[in-house]
């Protein structure tokens, strides 16, 4: 694969761990994402019976003044029917689980142990190494493979721990490991996956040879294919925004203020009431508003022009009042988007005609409602977008109403390359599957960016849409695979877009 291909597809690391084939997808990206919150690993994976559930996460936290990456796993397992009786006899713990599996396999020694009910605890302790009743369950014996997994994690400074606990319905195991964030690498992630798989083996009552995981495959860091992919518009995040680093950084600051209301209240600090974004069409203003809502964890409410403007006198004012009345009652953080703001609130001029007076009335009501919203419901933030900021009265957009004003320009060449890279990666993640490759290795975002001066993010997405459609139509009409999208295909689509 060429360098361009590596730039568009995340790195993968595949290894055989305890009999299972494990693939780490973009391990460096997973570790970096942990700074923003817990990252779920092994989501949707299937494990051998009786293991029922494995929740494995990595997150960052501060310990003794330094950042660390903390790996945590909680594993739950049921018991074979024979094991339920053993629990009633006080034969819990990993060794009791091993005895249950031997019983199920028809082991005559295990059968003789259980036959003498009165002697079961003593006999099991002698034959299987069980501790007396009432003591903590013994750690299961580990073979060379399991010991090697723990030793490898220890050598990397993770200090791994596996702890078992018996419950009435089965057993649980917890796995922990911590390493300095300054030192963490994909090798640490791979080592902790191996430790978690060792815990799976122990819960499954694995024999000294790693049989239960043999032939199984696990992918860490990729969305399970069985999960439906949400629409791009609904799932957009700030990480998907390219070429607007300063805007993204400002939105992340706003999101922090929403996530820490107690700190804001202690200082009497008021988060921004409103955000005005302005710039040419197609630069991603609406997408940014949606991304902000997702970053905050807020609901998204888009106010469209027909919901406000009314041909009857006084109707538009009533509509604005109703919209803000509802906003004051929202019980969850909400981003309210007034798209194409200039078409709703035009410049409030000094004309004396009926049209000017109507415009002034609408603008005046909007000002009043914005003035009272922050006191009534500080969890609502108003976002307005416009392609023509000069058409909006400055009194509407002053600080205290719209505290943040952001210009969203057309992307430069570096920004276009970033946008192309992120859009192509998104398509690869959503559509590529084993046996189907969507983009060829010669696709070069930097080279394509040089060919697209003056294009917006929306224009670039249209270029990709046209190429996707052309490939799909060719395959549908010819009945044969059309081949992946190449750099030449993209160049032709750009030229076609410019021609109209």
Rg (C-alpha, Å): 30 Å
How would you classify the helix and strand content by structural class?
alpha/beta
Give the N-terminus to C-terminus distance in angstroms: 34 Å
Largest sheet: 5 strands, antiparallel
Total E-strand runs = 13
| Percent strand | 15-25%
Please give the count of helices.
Answer: 20
Walkthrough of the structure:
The chain has 500 residues and is of the alpha/beta class. It contains 20 helices and 13 strands. The protein has helices spanning 3-8, 27-33, 81-88, 93-104, 108-115, 120-128, 144-155, 186-203, 232-235, 245-259, 261-267, 285-296, 305-308, 315-328, 341-344, 354-376, 413-431, 445-450, 457-478, 487-499, and strands spanning 12-17, 20-25, 39-41, 51-63, 66-77, 161-167, 170-180, 217-220, 274-278, 299-303, 334-338, 380-386, 404-407. The protein has a five-stranded antiparallel β-sheet, with helices on one face. A five-stranded parallel β-sheet has the order 10-11-12-9-13, with helices on both faces. The chain is globular and about 80 Å long.
In a few lines, what is going on in this structure?
The chain is an alpha/beta fold and 500 residues long. It contains 20 helices and 13 strands. The chain is globular, with a radius of gyration of 30 Å.
